[in-house]
Design brief:
Length: 463
């Protein structure tokens, strides 16, 4: 049976154009010129998606979006047609539950992409989620159940989502859950750690470049935004983006296109944007470190991830799942966790959240004997103090500079080589103290795991 769409617009020419385009995609259409007619058709028919103009003779499209969200057709994907450049109305529609928008004059290629996405969304209605979709974020605490319900709801939309939460709380897992439960699940999920990319490479990494566009551009390169085509782009630690890059990213999001460095034309992209940071993004805007227009564009809907200390009842199930994964790598049986050890874990504050729990259990796995983790194996006192031994990377005191002292041109050709040597020594020291546990080393250095991995590769320390 062919899918059926509802097109609501009081301009017959617009309705005919949209209906003709959709029919060429094997989608049948019903048309309505008023809000009242649209409600009547919705009552008497079952649609796969709805496309409505914002301005109607007896109301507006926002009222129709609210009507659909509050009725029995609440899972019906609904998109709105906005006046060109009217982002305020588009964002308001997304907040009310619209899954996407298209601007006038309607671009037919954009319309076809939107229709394809809406048809995929219609197959991801409530109650059709697989078990694996809901296992990305473990836990039965009340705030986790609320979180999973929120993720399932926003997955049915294509609106930009901002995920807030402390470091290590599971923001990327939340983003992956949204992606896997949504219409783009069969397309790429591309995570980017905005703080791990050197400033001079950000534009090339995001948008790509053409061969010969700058020194070292030996061949064409596809940017990360293009590599997420059809899927989801997750901008982790977005607060770390330089201001000039924020401007370019905002334009790419609004225009749904990118221009690689050295290219003459823009390339259309069809992606969903999810973003996250452990920082207070509103405070970053107030301090002038983050653009307010980009903030309002990516923060259409905010999802907050609770810290581990606010769901301590989930620690046992999390610990068992983590231990199962750790033991699977070397092919060993999963060790038991002594009740006193589990009680100690539940009393611990966990400033590093689930990521810190993983680090503690990974170390305990190597220390435990006779297949049981005891409280002494957890080294919780050591774990608490270890985070204070080193300041945030990039803020090391002068006394942390290696023993060779000031820059010596007889040993180093450039100051960059000298600084790289310092960086190498500090990272090697952190790795040595954590027995080459990269996650723990990154925590000691005050940087993200991805940032550490990038630096290891740059310094030739990757093994």
């Amino acid at each position: 049976m062919r899918p059926l769409a509802l097109v609501v617009d009081d301009e017959p020419d617009i309705c005919n154009l949209i209906s003709l385009t959709l029919k060429r995609m094997d989608v049948d259409c019903h048309s309505a010129g008023t809000l009242a007619q649209a409600k009547e058709l919705l009552y008497n028919n079952s649609y796969q998606f709805c496309l409505t103009d914002l301005r109607l003779p007896d109301g507006d499209g926002l009222q129709l979006v609210e009507y659909i969200q509050q009725g029995i057709e609440s899972h019906l994907p609904t998109a709105v047609i906005t006046a060109h450049g009217n982002m305020d109305s588009a964002i308001k529609a997304l907040k009310l539950g619209a899954f996407d928008f298209v601007s006038k004059p309607v671009d037919l290629e954009r319309l076809r992409n939107l229709a394809q996405l809406a048809l995929r969304l219609s197959h991801h209605q409530s109650g059709e989620l697989t078990q694996s979709d809901t296992e990305l974020l473990l836990g039965d605490a009340g705030n986790m159940r609320v979180l999973r319900n929120q993720l399932a709801k926003v997955a049915r939309s294509d609106a930009p989502i901002y995920i807030s939460g402390e470091s290590g709380s599971g923001k990327e897992l939340a983003a992956r859950s949204i992606h896997q439960q949504g219409a783009r699940a069969d397309k790429p999920f591309v995570p980017i750690n905005c703080g791990a990319i050197p400033k001079e490479l950000v534009e090339s990494e995001f948008f790509g470049h053409r061969k010969g566009s700058f020194t070292g551009a030996y061949k064409d390169k596809i940017g990360l935004l293009q590599s997420a085509e059809g899927g989801t782009l997750f901008l982790d630690e977005i607060a770390d983006l330089p201001l000039d890059m924020q401007v370019k990213l905002l334009r790419a999001i609004q225009e749904k296109s990118v221009r690689p460095i050295g290219a003459n034309q823009e390339i259309p992209i069809d992606i969903r944007i999810l973003s996250a940071t452990h920082k207070n993004l509103a405070a970053e805007v107030a301090e002038g470190r983050f653009r307010s227009d980009l903030y309002y564009r990516i923060n259409v809907i905010e999802i907050s991830i609770p810290p581990l200390r606010e769901r301590i009842e989930d620690i046992p199930v999390l610990a068992q799942a983590i231990m199962q994964r750790i033991a699977r790598k070397p092919g060993l049986p999963r060790p038991k966790i002594h009740p006193q050890a589990m009680l100690a874990l539940q009393k611990f504050h966990f400033p590093g959240n689930v990521r810190q729990l993983e680090n503690i259990l990974e170390r305990a796995f190597t220390l435990c004997e006779k297949g049981e983790i005891k409280e002494s194996d957890l080294k919780l006192d050591q774990n608490t103090s270890s985070t204070k031994e080193l300041p945030e990377f990039g803020q090391l005191p002068v006394t942390s500079i290696p023993s060779q002292g000031l820059f010596d041109s007889s040993q180093h050709t450039t100051i960059d080589e000298f600084l790289q040597e310092i960086e190498k020594e500090v990272i090697e020291s952190a790795l040595s103290k954590t027995k080459w546990n990269r996650t723990a080393a990154a925590e000691r250095l005050g940087i993200s795991f991805r940032s550490l991995r990038y630096r290891l590769k740059k310094l030739g320390l990757e093994t």
